[in-house]
Amino acid sequence: MKKEYAKMDVGLLHLVNKKVVLELINHNGQISRSDLAKKSGLTPPSITRIVDELIHVDGLVESLGVGNSSGGRPPVIVKFKNDNNYIVGIDLGATYIRGCMVDLNANFISEIQVPTELNKGFSSIVDKVIKVIKKLQKRKEPNSKIWGIGIGVAGLVNSETGIIESSPDFGWSHVDLRKELEKHLDLPFFYDNSTRLMALGELKMGAKENQKNFAVINIGYGIASGLVVEGNLLKGYSGFAGELGHISVDTDSEVQCKCGMYGCLEALASGHRIASLGREALLNNTSEILKELSANNESLITAELVAEAVSKGDVTSIKIYDEVAEYLCKGIGTIANLLNPETVYVGGGISLNGRLLFDLIEKKKDKYLLDANTKVKILPCTHGDQATSIGAVSLVLEKILNLELTGV
Ligand SMILES: [Zn+2]
User: DSSP class of residue 17?
Assistant: First the structure.
């Protein structure tokens, strides 16, 4: 009995050490075997055994040969084997399905974007996701491997089962997307909420290293946030943390949110709201520029078109964005005063119209911030319109680094 325990401990220790080595390679990009030993505290023979296994068994790592020596034995450099190992990230959004394929260092190999066409229903959306993945698969090097597919979906997603419990944007409840996709693709799938993945992507693959306290606000069709506190992604008791869109920012508002309440941030400041205020302006004949840009067709009015009208100096559209930015600042103020983050990243479709929204927020935000929080930086997400798909990639990379996808 005792002997068995000892055996198990050795195996476990090996896994723990292997994870440490993989993390160091991931963090450093390229690193010598001797530096791996120094930084991990492991002996050179242990490093040799682990690195050899990562090269010959897992195929995750390659040796770059001998580096420059500063006296003594020249170092042997190792790095991720990028041309054979890929990850696919999918952003399943209400407007677009975006997919990207990256190598283990998150270098883009290929990306695809197709319109979601919500109105065509669940099976058409599933077909589109399958087509996007298959297209990306075709673009990889022959004999190379896709380790997994990360998928971000707006709504409440059970990351363990892959079941989408509810997604108001799609009108889905209790949808087993994993089951449908696995019928057609023999690859490991991982799922999470799209905004939480934006925060994960910022945490693992963002521009700034080692940031431990920040928020991501996703403003698109709806509004949600992903919160990182002390380096951990906040999930909450039942996975619902971060529903910033449903805090009340105007208790007197008569605008009803799709959650049923009145005056929610999402009801007053989402892309949906901007478009609906634009349509109202067209019907009330208060904007010549919107009339011209939309050819007087209310169905063509989108938040993007209202932003275009702003750039042409349209007073009505400027007022719309001004009002929306005011509400957003209330939301940002709530997060910042509650969590004292270093940065609030703003992403999603509405954030992609140049500096417009950021300049307005910068002008208004201090009204809603305690002095101690006025230093909070408001920045666009590092990966722009790929923020969710890169987050989905990070989800898979985490599994690789955690040795959940290797045979050992
Ligand atoms: Zn609401």
Answer: H
* Residues forming CATH 3.30.420.40 domain(s) in the chain: 85-202+387-401, 209-381
Does pLDDT of 12 surpass 60? Answer: yes
Ligand 1 centroid – CA 264 distance (Å)? 5
pLDDT digits (tens, 9 = 90+) for 338-381: 999 999 999 998 888 778 899 999 999 999 999 999 999 999 99
Q: Are 310 and 318 in contact (CB under 8 A)?
A: yes
Q: For residue 284, give both structure tokens.
A: 């009330």
Q: How far, in Å, is the centroid of ligand 1 from the Cα of 316?
A: 26
**Separation of CA 199 and ligand 1 centre (Å):** 21
Which CATH number does the domain 2-80 belong to among 3.40.630.10, 1.10.10.10, 1.10.260.40, 3.40.50.2300? 1.10.10.10
Is the Cβ–Cβ distance between 199 and 206 less than 8 Å?
no
Q: 268: CA distance to ligand 1 center in Å?
A: 10
pTM: predicted TM-score of the whole model, two decimal places = 0.89
For residues 381 and 347, the answer to whether their CB atoms sit within 8 Å is: yes
CATH of domain 85-202+387-401: 3.30.420.40
* Cβ neighbour number for residue 33 with a 10 Å cutoff: 18
How far is Cα of residue 253 from the mean position of the Cα atoms in its chain?
32
Ligand 1 mean position, distance from CA 255 (Å): 10
Q: In the CATH scheme, what is the code of domain 209-381?
A: 3.30.420.40
Ligand 1 centroid to Cα of residue 266, in Å, is 6
Tens-digit pLDDT profile for residues 190-229 = 999 999 999 999 999 888 888 999 999 999 888 999 999 9
* CA 249/CA 269 separation, integer angstroms: 10
222 CA to centre of ligand 1 in angstroms: 9
For residue 158, report the distance from its CA to the centre of ligand 1, in Å. Answer: 21
